[in-house]
Amino acid sequence: MVRRQLSDAEVLRAAQSGDREALGIVLHEQYDRVLLVCVRMVHQRPAAEDCAQEAMIRIARGIAGFDGRSALSTWCHRIAVTTALDHLRRERRRPALTTIRDDASVDDGPIDHDAERSIVHAVEAAEVRGEIAAALAVLPPEFARAVVMRDVADLDYVEIAELEGIAVGTVKSRISRGRALLNQHLGGNQSGTEGRPNTLGTNVEPG
Fold first, then answer.
1. CATH number, span 9-93+114-185
2. Which of 49, 97, 101, 129 lies at a 20 to 30 A Cα distance from 192?
3. Domain boundaries, the chain
4. Other Cβ atoms closer than 10 A to 177
5. What is the pLDDT of residues 152-164, one digit of tens each?
């Protein structure tokens, strides 16, 4: 590995200059954050890991053009968000597969009601996550990115503004409109949202 006594800035510059060892260090140090964003958006671990790998490839290919206007981790967050959104849109275009046969045999043994409730809750949670993913996939990309960067990646308004190249006020507007559209797609009601969890499971802050 590259001499890790070098500063982060020196390792980054070496990676941007084509040093493969330095690039490996950068990718290694960013991977966990990128994977976390993908897991929160995609929810299915194998698909999230595929998204994270694709995001790392995009980071490696684009790192020479990273201009340092935002933190490297913030820039990587944006690539992770975009990659996961691309995945959700591809999945939305695929026909659903039926995995349970109507004529499947049924075991008539004793019913474990606790297990049954657990399964029902798990299915309901999966359905909610699937609905959110599907709704994100149909939002205008600029709204989806803003919502996810704020509510999933937990970036602040200034960081999002820097990444998107827009004013902070525009960021707030996109987040507000994106959340409203997301709630519409999920059959929710936008009135009285302040202080209650939003559709992504994080708190909606006023303003």
1. 1.10.1740.10
2. 129
3. 9-93+114-185
4. 16
5. 777 889 988 888 8
